[in-house]
């Protein structure tokens, strides 16, 4: 097994190749079909075409994202596994706080992300030993310290594009004719759930369209970082504790 320090020296393709050879079916790629995720899938189709691919279907995705699942199946042959939230947790959430609770406060927005994104993903990841994501350091200041490989409680989290720039991603997509999410053509630069994402204006930061009504948040959903920008200390947070935090 490589040391994490050694893995951080590998380029994206070699890192994916190593991960596939080392973990086999215990390797999973999660994607929301943004540009970075599509570059990862394109690279993976070359070095690990049998990789498991998952995506979070929060129940609030734009229709264009579902279209991307079809495109990925046809272009690369990946049978994308959709990961759904627990229906009872969603029902409790909506009955107690309403369907659009995310507009009311940051704790309620984080609660929605916790129920629809973080908890379903963590349940799914429990069956894997290595997890590939499409994060980049230059996406946002809160991701500036991102490394390519980190051990998260026994799960190896890999960010093969950590040192890529947005320009390099765009160039790769152009050269390799990688399919793009349709919403980029409508002015979006980062794409998540429909009610929480808008197009950006010239000069705005890449993730400015995510939760655009929040002034001081880190624009993170809680999967990778907490709202104050620190690394999530543990994924095993009881929902009761989360709910109490949201009610505070
Ligand atoms: Fe809920 Fe918005 Fe987070 Fe999606 S992005 S899970 S709708 S708060």
Question: Please, could you describe this protein's structure?
Answer:
This protein has 248 residues and is α/β, with parallel strands linked by helices. The protein has a single domain (4-247), classed as Rossmann fold. Helices cover 38% and strands 9% of the residues. Strands 3-2-1-4-6-5 form a six-stranded mixed β-sheet. α3 crosses α7 and α6 (106-125) runs antiparallel to α8 (239-247). It is globular. The structure holds iron/sulfur cluster (SF4). Iron/sulfur cluster (SF4) is lined by residues 58, 60, 102, 109, 112-113, 116-117, 192-193, 195-196, 221. The site of iron/sulfur cluster (SF4) has 13 residues, from α6.
Order of helices and strands: HHEHEHEHHEEEHH
> Can you tell me the number of structural domains?
1
Task: Tell me what the CATH architecture is.
Answer: 3-Layer(aba) Sandwich
| Count of alpha and pi helical runs | 8
Question: What is the CA–CA distance across the termini?
Answer: 44 Å
Sum up the overall morphology in one term.
Answer: globular
Uncertain segments are 233-238
* CATH class division: Alpha Beta
Q: Which bin fits the share of residues in helices?
A: 25-40%
Q: What ligand species are in this complex?
A: iron/sulfur cluster
Query: How is the CATH topology named?
Result: Rossmann fold
């Amino acid at each position: 097994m490589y040391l994490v320090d050694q893995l951080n020296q590998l380029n994206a393709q070699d890192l994916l190749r190593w991960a596939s050879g080392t973990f086999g079916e215990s390797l999973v790629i999660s994607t929301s079909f943004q540009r970075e995720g599509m570059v990862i899938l394109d690279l993976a189709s070359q070095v690990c075409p049998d990789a498991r691919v998952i995506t979070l279907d929060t129940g609030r995705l734009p229709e264009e994202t579902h279209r991307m699942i079809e495109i990925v199946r046809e272009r690369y042959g990946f049978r994308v596994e959709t990961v759904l939230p627990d229906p009872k947790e969603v029902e409790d959430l909506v009955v107690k706080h309403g369907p659009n609770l995310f507009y009311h406060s940051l704790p309620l927005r984080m609660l929605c992300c916790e129920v629809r994104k973080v908890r379903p993903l963590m349940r799914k990841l429990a069956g894997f030993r290595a997890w590939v994501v499409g994060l980049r350091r230059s996406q946002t200041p809160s991701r500036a310290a991102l490394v390519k490989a980190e051990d998260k409680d026994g799960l190896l989290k890999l960010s093969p594009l950590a040192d890529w720039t947005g320009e390099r991603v765009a160039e790769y997509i152009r050269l390799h004719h990688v399919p793009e999410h349709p919403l980029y053509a409508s002015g979006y630069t980062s794409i998540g759930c429909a009610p929480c994402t808008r197009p950006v204006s010239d000069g705005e930061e890449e993730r400015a369209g995510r939760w655009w009504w929040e002034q001081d948040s880190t624009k993170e959903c809680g999967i990778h970082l907490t709202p104050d920008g620190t690394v999530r200390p543990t994924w095993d947070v009881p929902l009761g504790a989360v709910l109490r935090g949201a009610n505070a």
